[in-house]
Amino acid sequence: MSAETITLTLPDGSAREFPADATPLEVARTIGERLAKAAVAGQLDGAVVDLRAPIRRSGAFRVLTAKDPEAGAVIRHSAEHVLADAVERVFPGTIIDAGRQDHSEKFQYDFRIDHAFTQEDLEKIEAEMARIVKEGRPFERRVVGRPQAAEIFKSRKEEIKLVRLADIPEGDEITLFQHGEFVDLCRGPHVQRTDQIGAFKLIETSGAYFKGDERNEMLQRIYGTAFATKEELDAYFAKIEEARRRDHRRLGKELDLFSFSPLAPASPFFHPKGAAVYNELLAFMRGLYVKYGYQEVITPQLFDAELWKTSGHYFHYKENMFFAEVDEREYGLKPMNCPSHCVLFGVHAHSYRDLPLRIADFGRLHRYERSGVVQGLTRVRSFCQDDAHIFCMPSQIGAEVDSLFDLMFEVYGTFGFNDPVVYLSTKPEGAMGDDALWESAESQLQECLTRRGVAFTVNTGDGAFYGPKIDFVVHDAIGREWQLGTIQLDWNLPERFKLAYVGEDGAEQRPVMLHRAVLGSVERFFGVMLEHFAGDLPLWLAPEQARVLPVSDKFLDAARAVKAGLVAAGLRAEVDERSEKLGAKIRDGELAKVPVLLIVGAREAEAGGASVRLRHRGDLGSRTLDEIAATMTATTKQRALDPWPEAK
């Protein structure tokens, strides 16, 4: 291979030489004209590249068509340009700003226009977009000099584009993409022709500050999405509607689980029903702590700033912390438990026989999150974690990580989060500690994953500032990803706090510290779990496990007796004592997502039991109180996902 050629390895394993300035479209034509016509982008070593951009280096290459999942972002990026073109056609004189960088689900553009867009405007713009798509105009890529680009946008009276042009660093390649009369600054990639966009829909409009800075002018933003086919577009909106139905903020209000107040921004109030669920989560983890050998501790919330300077948080995490001055000294609310656990470890002298020492803490934490990013329970300022730290000898790391894998998989399986995706996150910029320690820590975590046979992806530069980590990502019932648990290997904090234990040889040794959380933030997990189950919590978690429904007021005493029997068995039950018809009581119980409804009429009152009705499963017939309590107690104890396994 000469300097003027590159070697591309194709999906069939064959390797071919091409000129160094060959484009993906030219490569596609050597494979076949049908493929070239269907191509929407190229992919080199996993990165999506524009069809018209020179490839310039060797690597694994394939041609993407509209059928490939990776093509979706290219289609949406291209639809974004069609949107801006359509707005300029429908509203001449509109000044365009820029689109978005992430096209994984949506596209958008910001505009300077003298009025706010209406739904009627969006319909007109959509119709114009349809005409542009049908035209099948080719997207053309041009590399230009800065003066040429400036002249183009001056002639088009696009003054915002001149600001964006000035933001491009000197020496960077400047590229323009044009279809028809529309031209914009853009790196690409884009499809070949507008008729490859397929199906699209404009979603909404809003105001947006220029460059996201509230000191700048307000522009008008339009959001939309696009897919290769109408079927994919319909499936996307069906998923959005399902996500809306499952939104934990809506469910929290409907089910009376939690609320928020402007008097405590981004800090949830858990109501009695929500607290019941919250406490069940903590009880579940506490039971596992006994099984896996943890000791629970309670540590302060407010610490002298010297603690945070010793730990490094003051220098690496200060902008996310709350500080206050007390007795002319600076104090910080703890955003995490690890420094306080280092203090706790240092209270006593330790021998190698004491290790591993596993310390768990449900202490309340506080982190400053900007008001623009807080969201329901999934991003809050006040929360607790199922947090723990393991102090161990270097020789114990492998066994401890293995035990943590067992714990993680047991917890996630209980909620139906099977087959979590695992990431190994490595040293970030600005991390503290010696490079050699980081390399050692990263290799040890990788060795643990490999030995265990856990498939993982390296997430370069996403580790904590004090050590690398293993992150666990689960998929909920509708396929969304949520990062939950983490295992972090830390040589730095034990060194900074001068922690020590006496080794078998009688000499002082430095312990290694493993940070771990399984649920993560309990508040965030609460929200994720609520959406995963769409509010239909399994029996063991349901705040109201059973509701007793007397057919009429004359069966109230019998209904109360059923409730008393269930409560005595340790179950959460209520009686609907309203003078309503049975149908209304059943409907309200279903809407409240109570898993078990127990109907008491004449026959049931005489037998001392109730007729069992399961949510989503209908009537099971009459059971005695002892049978009902036994089944519900066993199901709760097993933490089964099915409220009544015998009904299958």
Relevant terms:
single chain; 648 residues; Ubiquitin-like (UB roll); Threonyl-tRNA Synthetase, Chain A, domain 2; BirA Bifunctional Protein, domain 2; 4 domains; nine-stranded mixed sheet
Total strands: 33
Rg, rounded, reads 30 Å
Q: What is the helical fraction, as a range of percent?
A: 25-40%
| CATH level-4 homologous superfamily of the largest domain | Bira Bifunctional Protein, Domain 2
Low-confidence stretches: none
Strand content: 25-35%
Q: What's the CATH first level of the largest domain?
A: Alpha Beta
Average pLDDT number: 93
Q: Can you name the CATH architecture of the largest domain?
A: 2-Layer Sandwich
Structural domain tally: 4
What global shape is seen? globular
User: How many DSSP H or I helices?
Assistant: 20
End-to-end C-alpha gap: 66 Å
Note the main sheet: 9 strands, mixed
Please name the CATH topology of the largest domain: BirA Bifunctional Protein, domain 2
Structural class of the helices, strands and pairings? alpha+beta
Account of the 3D structure:
The chain has four domains: 5-65, Ubiquitin-like (UB roll); 72-238, Threonyl-trna Synthetase, Chain A, domain 2 (Threonyl-tRNA Synthetase, Chain A, domain 2); 258-532, Bira Bifunctional Protein, Domain 2 (BirA Bifunctional Protein, domain 2), CATH 3.30.930.10; 546-647, Anticodon-binding domain (Rossmann fold, 3-Layer(aba) Sandwich). The protein is globular, with a radius of gyration of 30 Å. It is α+β, with helices and mostly antiparallel strands and 648 residues long. The protein contains 20 helices and 33 strands.
